[in-house]
Amino acid sequence: MFKVITFETNEINKWKIELEIMNSNSSYNQMSKNKSTINYVDILSEYEESKKLNTTRLLIKQGNNYIGLVDYCINNPSDNTPWISLFVIHKQFQGGGNSLGVFQQLEDLIRKEGKKKLRLAVHKENEKGILFWTRLGFNKFKEIIFEGKPHYCLEKNL
Question: How many folded domains does the chain comprise?
């Protein structure tokens, strides 16, 4: 039986949940932070950055389980386009269609805001991520260096 996916506001007092999700993905941490496990200081830094950029931070729940997290900005000031800045599913919940289900709900949320396009950046070395996003209809529109690492910027028309 498929359990309903819901979103819950992610706030700093829920940092242990975020830490558990992020540290289940050691290869992503290595790629993005140059270390396989992160800590409270890393979470706090992300939270503060999110506040500055006015992103929406959501925990993803399936039943009583926290299965992931997503951060997005509905109107990026640089291009007036929504951007996903973080999309992570707990390792334990990967591979069962959860990522697709979560993305479809997020896409619906953004579409309801009247947006016609969605963008994100993915680490150039993140082959699984690139495959996932391109299968969902995202296309590369430029290559950038962000925090010293090469990324592809992808977009999808909604």
Answer: 1
* pLDDT tens, position by position, 89-138: 999 999 888 999 999 999 999 999 999 999 999 999 999 999 999 999 99
For residue 130, give both structure tokens.
């690139």
Joined together, the tokens standing for residue 62 give: 């399936």
56 strand-pairing partners: 72
Give the whole-angstrom CA distance, residue 94 versus residue 155.
23
pTM flag (> 0.85): yes
Q: Are 59 and 66 in contact (CB under 8 A)?
A: yes
Summarize pLDDT for 66-75 with one digit per residue, the tens: 999 999 999 9
Print the domain residue range for 27: 5-157
What is the total residue count of the chain? 158
The CATH number of the domain where 85 resides is what?
Answer: 3.40.630.30
